Amino acid sequence: MSHGNAFMSTLGTNYRYLTPWDHHRLNYYYYAFTEALLYDHQCSCALSRYCISDAYLFENNSSKTIYIEGMKIGCTPSESFHQSTLQCFYNSSCLRLLVKNSIVPLVPRESHYLINITIDELRKNLFLENWNTTSNYSAYFHECSPSI
Q1: Residues 116-132: pLDDT tens digits?
Q2: For every residue of the chain, which 3-state class applies, written as one string?
Q3: What value, to the nearest 5°, has the Cα angle with vertex 42 and ends 37 and 44?
Q4: Using a CB cutoff of 8 Å and minimum separation of 24, what contacts does 49-53 make?
């Protein structure tokens, strides 16, 4: 859905529909109003797609807010994902919160990345730990048989 100069997320993370109602005639209008969402009470999705805040869940039968370590929510899922970290996946209690099962967290000792590195930084590094380059000229010459 196009809104001015922006796209409305299918998940409703950047704009929300407002239902207009004509109280005098008790009729609905034939068009829908939209309103940009705010993150952290100050960043408007109408002005920036990079608005994010900490992701959270509500406890069952309660209004208690439970924040998810390292996870972000925002105007678009992709921007939120890029600014999130993998911290929750290294923490068994956070994982239990998400999946309600006991899962062994990732072992950080085998990675040179810090657990609070953003997913965007991992993506820029192609999720690679290291890059090994091996040159085998004899195999190249044997396979390609270049003329000298």
Answers
A1: 899 899 889 888 888 77
A2: CEECCEECCCCCCCEEEECCEECCCCEECCCCEEEECEECCCEECCCCCCCEEEEEEECCCCCCEEEEEEEEEECCHHHHHHHCECHHHHCHHHHHHHHCCCCCCCCHHHCCCCCCCEHHHHHHCCCCCCCCCCCCHHHHHHHHCCCC
A3: 35
A4: 49/6, 49/14, 49/75, 49/76, 49/79, 50/74, 50/75, 50/79, 50/83, 51/75, 52/79, 52/80, 52/83
Summarize pLDDT for 77-104 with one digit per residue, the tens: 999 999 999 999 899 999 888 886 445 5
Residue 147 confidence (pLDDT) above 90: no
Give the separation between CA 61 and CA 111, rounded to whole angstroms: 39
Length of the chain equals 148
- pLDDT above 70 as % of the chain: 78
Tokens of 142: 């044997």
Tokens of 116: 């609070």
The pTM (predicted TM-score) of the whole model is 0.63
